[in-house]
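Entry 0007
Protein: RNA polymerase ECF-subfamily sigma factor
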Amino acid sequence: MDERALLRRAAAGDRAAFEEFYTRTSPWLAVRLRKRCADEQLVAEVVQDTYLAVWRAAGSFADGAAVDDALGWLWTVAARRLVDAFRREGRHRSATEAATATSAAAAPAAEDALLEWTLSGDVGAALGALAPELRQVLRAMVLDGLTVRETSDLLGIPEGTVKTRARRARLMLREAMS
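Output (structure tokens):
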């Protein structure tokens, strides 16, 4: 049974299906969250909040004909919970600095390798040529589907800076692709 089917069964109140969904997806979710936040305790809290929200809102996933990707939906819920936690905890700067320092020293994640392989060729080369701060903004807004405000909170930078970096990145990609 795939994750979509498990969520649909969980929406009908099937605890075993929800437990299976959690068992399958929680390690993946924790790894993705750690890439955004180096605080293990905060990551654990966000994982717990995310699955509580998923249990409560599984019906909206099951009812949403447009929502076809359970992991994408799960990540959207988690990313928003992480942004909320940053706001609550006031850890914008320290969490961002710690995550940046950790990711700079770590080997590329499988997710990044897959993204690089998928975006090989001209698009991959254009993305690779972007400055890291521009790629961060694109990743948060495009891949993670966050709003300008959520990206601002996640990266610990002003909203105007997010907009400027997103615009610069788009212009640079357009120029590289033409």
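Curator remark: The two ends are 44 Å apart (CA to CA). The domain at 1-91 is CATH 1.10.1740.10 (Rna Polymerase Sigma Factor; Chain: A).
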